[in-house]
Amino acid sequence: MKNIEDVIKDIKIAPSTYQELINIALRRALKSEAGKLKSNLKRAEILKIRRITDYVSSYMRDIALKSPFLKELHPFYRELISLMINRDEYRMCLSRIYKASIIVRKISSEEIRRISKAKGNREILTYRRSFIGRVSSVLRKLDKCFKIIRRYQLEMLKLPSIRTDVPSIIVTGAPNVGKSSLLRVLTKAKPEIKPYPFTTKNIIVGHLETGSIPIQIIDTPGLLDRPLEEKGKIELRAIVALKHLKGAIMFVYDPSETCGFPLEYQHKIYQSICKWFPNTPKLIVGNKFDLLNEDSISNFLKVTGFNREKIICVSAISGENINLLKDRIANLIKNTN
Ligand SMILES: Nc1nc2c(ncn2[C@@H]2O[C@H](COP(=O)(O)OP(=O)(O)OP(=O)(O)O)[C@@H](O)[C@H]2O)c(=O)[nH]1
Ligand SMILES: [Mg+2]
Which of 93, 220, 231, 278 is least crowded, fewest Cβ atoms below 10 Å from its Cβ? Predict the structure, then answer.
């Protein structure tokens, strides 16, 4: 299984338009020794065609062969990418770009052969124009594919760098309960935090430095209480993390209910998580401790049915009990390994 950083660092970004690729190739050819060979037109044009061909064809070959092959990736990344792209479109475009890289070489050999046999300068220039025209026409047909692949590649570059062999704590819960705020106080990660739901749209990773075991804290988009088949693509990113990353789940409640979701609703999400991932160890956190009083904590225990010892109340804002939470996380990971 390939490491995601290794796969991503090799990506050759597709051009934003087909003209961009041709223009760069032409400029490079003119700047090369071919552009300076004024005395021998035949040799100069053949060299130019070779330069253009090498650039365009290798570029397209690299786009096709250095874009991630999904089947080589860890299932976490494979499923995550599948939520971001249309796999059929991705495969089809890469295969068309690869085939075109071979066609460009064929066109090049044909026109070079013609130029070699050409009698005069006019004939040489006609074949050179024919080469540019034919290559442009091949690339023009790929313009949509270049744009699609470029969009997908740029999405892939934003993928989180998660070690799938290192234990993770996957932070989950209803939207707006303070999951990202907790990632911020537990690690050096800087996820976006907003006073409204659905702020987090990606999987975000932070690293908790406790003792000898490295622990990844994974922030995920908020979940709604609805069946898997009705979940949106952003919400499903959280499910993919829960499904494929090894470690434990940190389920975050907001007993103050300032997140906008009543405790009963938040608890239904917890129950679904238990049903889908019965064997993953779980840590229960009540966030926004700074807004809680004895009554709201009792209500929290009443609605969820948890014992006081089962939960840990913290505040991402005031920092209350955050060190205790770090210890609990470390212990949980130690015991699950
Ligand atoms: N009073 C108080 N507010 C908090 C606390 N933690 C988070 N908040 C606030 O709650 C709001 C939501 O915080 P986020 O960290 O963005 O919540 P989230 O769960 O990541 O939200 P989504 O990404 O939308 O699911 C923000 O306005 C935070 O400032 C806390 O401990 N106390
Ligand atoms: Mg968030």
Answer: 278
